[in-house]
Specification:
Elements lengths: L3 E2 L7 H11 L8 H14 L3 E5 L2 H11 L7 E4 L6 H8 L3 E4 L11 H10 L3 E5 L10 H10 L3 E5 L7 E3 L5 E3 L8 E5 L12 E5 L2 H11 L3 E2 L15 E2 L10 H11 L2 H19 L5 E3 L12 E5 L2 H10 L2 E2 L11 H4 L9 H9 E4 L7 H15 L1
Parallel strand pairs: 1-15, 3-4, 3-5, 5-6, 6-9
Antiparallel strand pairs: 2-10, 7-8, 9-10, 11-12, 13-14, 14-16
The structure holds pyridoxal-5'-phosphate.
């Protein structure tokens, strides 16, 4: 049997053709495909605006810049996420404050966040993560953030198409801008929509949207309405300190083509999750992320097991390549240097001892999935 990874992109002939078409056109960097990708993505997610950027990390960086994070300010996030969710605060000179996870949902624990907000007036923002694809209850976070005058930057990299149901029984898509100021996505190949590299920021806030457009391209504008002077056709103004975080047009074409299949891919992910759920329910050696399948974006399917390393090695021998998401960020040498230590977040640390991400991607066949399940049973038999 061929090897089975934990996640995998799926590139079709149609995807390839879309890229080739752009390579033969007049635009390589930002051109018409960017605008199309932004509009279609905003439509898929349900936000008013979308800004395409070079990758998810650039999306996070531009977001903390647009939100005006500066030295002395603190921002809360979870230790169980990709490092970039925290690092973006540091890029802007702010301080990261970690808070523990809920041991059942693996999401940032809102009660722990509230405790911090009550005691620390320097906190200006919260970065909750729709971890593994499971949506954070952003309505609850909005209420809390408003009480303490904070903004919310939703890291929705794992959850395009995921949603939660709010108190009015309305389905709220991850990243739709209803409750958070900004949300970000990534188009890294292991994510739902692959563009090689790529990222997107979504928002319903026009002022933030305009700031992001400026920051994406060096802080430079050629828009006559925005410029303070105008010396002629060649003239442009650099109004703020920005970056070159543009996405190329051929990546946007790939993203567009992939986006057409995003809904189908998500349905397939949920199907795979249902089969895992039923195979593992009642099995004493496995604990899963609790809660409903409905609304889950299933970037990852995570189990908690005894002897995780043993299972990881055993599966490798059977050509099944699992992964661990994530090593708690507060225990990374960089963050230890800032004073964080073992014992700070018992739930996150215990989760890290046992967690394993098993194969989850739309092209995983039923036969392959059954082999994964059988192999896990085999290890614990
Ligand atoms: C992938 C990911 C990022 C970073 O995205 P890149 O495109 O790889 O820079 C940020 N946050 C989370 C939760 C991610 O999974």
């Amino acid at each position: 049997m061929k090897s089975i990874p934990y996640g995998k992109q799926n590139i079709t002939d149609e995807d390839i053709q879309a890229v080739v078409d752009v390579l033969k056109s007049d635009f390589l960097t930002q051109g018409p495909k960017i605008k199309e990708f932004e509009e279609r993505f905003a439509d898929y997610i349900g936000s008013r605006y979308a800004v395409a950027v070079a990758n998810g990390t650039a999306a996070l960086h531009l977001s903390t810049m647009a939100l005006g994070v500066r030295p002395g300010q603190k921002v809360i996030t979870t230790p169980i996420t990709f490092a970039a969710s925290a690092n973006c605060v540091r890029y802007a000179g702010g301080e990261v404050v970690f808070a523990d996870i809920d041991p059942e949902t693996y999401l940032l624990d809102i009660n722990k966040v509230e405790e911090i907000l009550r005691n620390d007036k320097d906190v200006v923002g919260i970065i909750p993560v729709d971890f593994a694809g499971r949506s954070v209850n952003l309505e609850a976070y909005r209420t809390l953030a408003d009480k303490f005058g904070c903004w919310i930057l939703e890291d929705a990299c794992h959850a395009p198409g995921g949603y939660f149901t709010d108190s009015k029984e309305i389905k709220q898509n991850c990243g739709n801008g209803e409750f958070a100021e900004l949300a970000i996505f990534s188009f890294h190949p292991v994510k739902h929509i692959a563009a090689g590299e790529g990222g997107m920021i979504t928002t319903n806030d026009e002022a933030l949207y305009k700031k992001l457009l400026l920051l994406r391209t060096h802080g430079i504008t050629k828009d006559a309405d925005l410029m303070q002077e105008n010396h002629g056709g060649w003239y442009y103004e650099m109004q703020v300190l920005g970056f070159n975080y543009r996405l190329t047009d051929f990546q946007a074409a790939l993203g567009n083509s992939q986006l057409k299949r995003a809904g189908d891919g998500l349905n397939r992910r949920r199907e795979i999750a249902r089969l895992y759920n039923s195979a593992f329910s009642g099995k004493p050696f496995i604990k899963g992320q609790s809660g409903v399948v409905e609304g889950h974006g299933y970037h990852l399917y995570i189990i908690e097991v005894e002897d995780r390393k043993g299972l990881y090695e055993y599966l490798r021998k059977h050509n099944i390549f699992t992964q661990v998401h994530y090593i708690p960020n507060h225990l990374q040498p960089y963050y230890r240097e800032q004073g964080w230590k073992q014992g700070d977040f018992p739930n996150a640390e215990k989760y890290y001892q046992n967690c394993l991400s098993i194969p989850m991607y739309p092209t995983l066949s039923v036969e392959e999935q059954k082999f994964v399940i059988k192999s896990i049973y085999g290890f614990y038999a």
